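Quick start: load a record and inspect it. Here is Ig-like domain-containing protein:
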Amino acid sequence: MLFILLGVVLAVTGGTCETVLEVMAQEGSQAVLPCLVSDSQSTHYAAFQWVKKGKRGESTVCRREKSGLVYRGSVLGHRSHCLGSQFGDYSLYIDAVREEDAGQHVCSVQGHGLGRGTTTWKVMLRVMKVSFSLPEAIEGDKLQVKCIVTPKPDMLYSTEQYRWKLNGVDYKGNGYRRSSIPIPSVSQSDRGNWTCCVDYRGKATEATQFLRVKGIEHPSNNNALVYAAIGSNTILPCVFTQGLTSNATWSRLSKGSSSSSSFYRLGSNSRRHPPPSLPLSFIRPPLSPTSLWDQSARLERVELGDEGSYVCSGTVESRMVKRELELVTARVLSSPSTKRTPLTLTCQLSNDKEVTKYEWVRVTYDNSSVATVTPVGKNKTLKLTEDDMGEWVCRYYGERGLLGNVTYHLHLMGGLESGRPEEQSYNRGALVIGFGILILLVLLIALQIYRNHQRRKMILPYPALENIVHSLANERERRERRGINVRKNSEPMEEQA
Ligand SMILES: *[C@@H]1O[C@H](CO)[C@@H](O)[C@H](O)[C@H]1NC(C)=O
Ligand SMILES: *[C@@H]1O[C@H](CO)[C@@H](O)[C@H](O)[C@H]1NC(C)=O
Ligand SMILES: *[C@@H]1O[C@H](CO)[C@@H](O)[C@H](O)[C@H]1NC(C)=O
Ligand SMILES: *[C@@H]1O[C@H](CO)[C@@H](O)[C@H](O)[C@H]1NC(C)=O
Ligand SMILES: *[C@@H]1O[C@H](CO)[C@@H](O)[C@H](O)[C@H]1NC(C)=O
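Running the structure step on this input writes:
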C-alpha cells in the first residue's frame, strides 16, 4: 500500500534529549516512527527499546540489549521492524498499520555516545482511514462517507481541514468540507476511490478507500445515448456489478427521440399510448450468458423507428434497479439529384444533442482491399457530384470523442442507395425476389389464359387478380383430379409461355 508518513516535530527540549513527534499514517500503509540520535560517534550496539503506552499501561514493542540480543513484543508481532542501525537510526517500522496501532509510542536509547544519558523520542502515531457507513452499498442506499483519524487531534475539529476527492477529482458535493459526507441516494457516480485529505499542522495527509456500488455499472447513469447506424447491428448495454446474477427484463419505454416532439414517455400519457413493442430484431440476453452479470441485449439490424428509450431492470439483493438508455439511429439522407445540381448528403441522427462536430471521410480500397480514409468535410452536409462514386462515411463526435459513424455508398445511378453495405444487399435481394414473384405471376396468368383458351376454346375476361387466383386454384384442383394426363399436355405450353 501507499506509503504515507507525516512527521511533525513539536518540540525539542534541550539537555535531556527528549523529542516529541506526531506521525499520521494511512491505514494499511507502512508507518515509520522515527527515533534518531544525531551524535554519530555512536557505539555499535546501543541498547534501546520501543514502548507503546496504552490505557492499561505500557507494552514493549521491541527491545535490544547491550549484548545485541533483540526481543520483539507480541503487540505488533511480525509487522514491526526495529532495525537499530549503527548510524544512530532507531526508527520503528510498522507494516500494514491498523487503527489499534495508533497511540503514544516512546523510544529510548540508553548509553548512547560515551557516558551520555538516555535519549527519548515520544511519537504519537495517528492512523487515518476512509470508512463507509455500509460496507457494500446498493444503488439507492443512504450512505455516509467518513474520514476517521485515531486518536483524533483537537485541532482537527475545525471543518476547514478536510478536503475530499472522488477518483482523483475534487469533490464538491454535500458537506465536502466536513469529516463525513452524507449521500442520500447512492448511484454509480459515487463509485470509486474516495480520498480524504487532512491539513494538519501545515502538512497534508490523505487516505483512500474504494466504494463499490452494487447495481448496473454500465451504463452508469440513466438516459445514456447509444448510437447505431441504420442497418447495422448494435448492443444495448446493461452490465451489472461483477459477480451478481440478475435476470434482467428489457422493455421499451418510448419511440422516437427525446429531442423531438413525437417523443412520449410512459407515465402522464400512458393511457393514450400503450408501451411500444420491442423491435423485431431485438435479441434478449441469453438465459445462461457467459458472464451472468452481463445482461446486454442486441439488435441484429437497426431499423428506422427503432430509436427511443429502452429500459433494463433487474433485482440486486431483492432491490429493483433499472437503467434507461436511448437508442439514437444514424443515417445518411441524400437530396434528389439532377444532372446539373450536385448531390447533397446529410448526416442525420435521431438525437444530436450530444454531437459537437461532424466529419466526412471518403474510403477507398487499394488492390489488397486495404482501406484508405481521406477527410473531405467538416459540415453536417456534404456536396457531391455524380462522378464521386464510392464509399462516404460520416463520423460524429461528442465531448467524449468519436460517438459513431454511418456509411453511404454512391453508385453509378447516384443517390439511389444509402446506408450500409448490408442494407444494400438486403434491398437488392428484396428487389430480386420481388421481380421473381412478379414474373412468375405473369407467367402463371399467361399460362392460365392460354390453357383456358386452348381447352374451352373461349376467352374468359378476368377483371381482377382475385378471380385469376381463384380460377387458378380451381384449375389446379381439376388438374389433380385428372392426374398425369394434364401435366403431359401442359409441358409444351410452359415452354411457349
Ligand atoms: C482506485 O484505485 C486503485 C488503486 O490505486 C486503482 O487500481 C483503481 O483503478 C481506482 N479505481 C477507480 C475507479 O479509479
Ligand atoms: C434466472 O433465470 C433462470 C432461468 O429462468 C433461473 O434458473 C435462475 O435461477 C434465475 N436467476 C435469478 C438470479 O433469478
Ligand atoms: C493491382 O495488382 C495487379 C497484380 O497484382 C497489378 O498488376 C496492378 O498494377 C495493381 N494495380 C494497382 C493500381 O496497384
Ligand atoms: C460548411 O459550413 C460553413 C458555414 O456553415 C460554410 O461557410 C462552408 O462553406 C461549408 N463548407 C462546405 C464544404 O460546404
Ligand atoms: C465506422 O465504425 C466501425 C465500427 O465502429 C469501424 O469499424 C469503422 O472503421 C468506422 N469507419 C470509419 C471510416 O471510421
